[in-house]
Amino acid sequence: MGEEEVQERQVGGRDGTNYRLTAEHVAAFEHDGYVHLPGVLSDEEVASLEADYDRLIRGEIEVPGKDFCDMSGDYSKDPADFSIINVMLPRKYHPAWRGNVYEQRAATIARQLCGDGMAIDYDQLLAKRPGKDDAVFAWHQDLAYWPVTDDLRTATLWLAIDDSTIENGCMRFVPGSHREPALRPHRPATGDRSESHTLIAEVDENRDEVRYAEIRRGDVTVHNESVIHGSGGNTSDRWRRAYVIAFRSRETIAEERRLGFTHSHNDEDDVLRDVGGD
Q: Is 188 exposed, middle or buried (0-12, 13-18, 19+ CB in 10 A)?
């Protein structure tokens, strides 16, 4: 390995539409099931997405049906009362976003973490209103919601549009939980999945290590399909906005679509309906 290549592996960061990972970044993703990447987007690059982001969460760009909803699962709420505004598949409903700088850098990150053949499976906006202590994502593993395929490689990127803190409901993880031999047991949040599809994983916060991912605007966390994660409510006086892009292998995406699994909340098949989030 040449001196220049060694230096590139030691110093990560933005490089045009690429984001270079260090060996430490890759090792953290493999060991912990997630990694924090600072400064994936500059403040100016975040601002270039922010106006359309806010138009989407205000409903000014049309997103039909349940793909614009409150992640509490109460689809009867008025949008002004949503605690967690969820916009599924924004690149589908706002095609001008396709190929934006975040998507381009995210693709380079997914390739470095998971190898070749990765593509965007879905994207999602998640915005917690100020002063909403019920804006909670329960502990879960994404794979508990998804069909199991031969190739499980996943890189779910979570971009902070705002500084993300414990107070406003940042991501939190149980590091290393993806290395357990099987998924943790999950139970329906309401006791009846016909009322709410939300699942809650068994986590003992007195025994399991819980790590909070407080990150800055423009930073990203990336997690895999099996690490346990969630987030708390927003008790602050400011928003907590996130922009999620999930990459999986092209073969897995093709198999999901063959099964009718699109990650849209408008899917009619209850078994294959995705309600993932933080």
A: middle
